[in-house]
Amino acid sequence: AEKLSSMKGVDWDDFLQRVCLLLDSTEKSTGAARSKLNLLYYLCTVVIHKEVASRLISSQLFPILIQQLRVAANWDIRAKVARVIGLLALHTSEIGENVPVSEAIALLTELIRENFRNSKLKQCLLPSLGELLYLIANKEEKKENPGVCWAVPSATYTVLMRCLREG
User: Fold this and answer.
1) How many CB atoms lie within 10 A of CB 101?
2) Which pTM value belongs to this model?
3) Does Kinase count among this protein's keywords (predicted)?
4) Which of 6, 22, 34, 90 is the most exposed place for a label (fewest CB within 10 A)?
């Protein structure tokens, strides 16, 4: 993580491009899924550093993570993507107005609603949703970038209340 935070220019762009290409790969083999999981485990370890998290959440990686959360057939990959998103939200010190946080919230809400009876999946998805909501609330409280991209769908509150009521 320290090496990543010190990367500049071309080195950072190369690293980011390789990560995005590997995550965005449509190959369906077991090896490809294992490679994605290993990369996601790696990202979980490096995003706990504020500088790295801030750079990654504002990069093209965040939309790719959202896309993987939507299309990945493997639920292990989806769960790990959700974890990376939650850790990014937790550890970022700054976030740009153009980061599609609302899209991530809407997608997590939809996945929780579709899989409501699966408590294991809810346990994977709810923490990330909570971290994104906390990030938005924290930034709005400080009056930092209250942009349109950060609107929270009303369905999110409904799903959260239902989760709290029904466990």
Assistant:
1) 26
2) 0.89
3) yes
4) 6
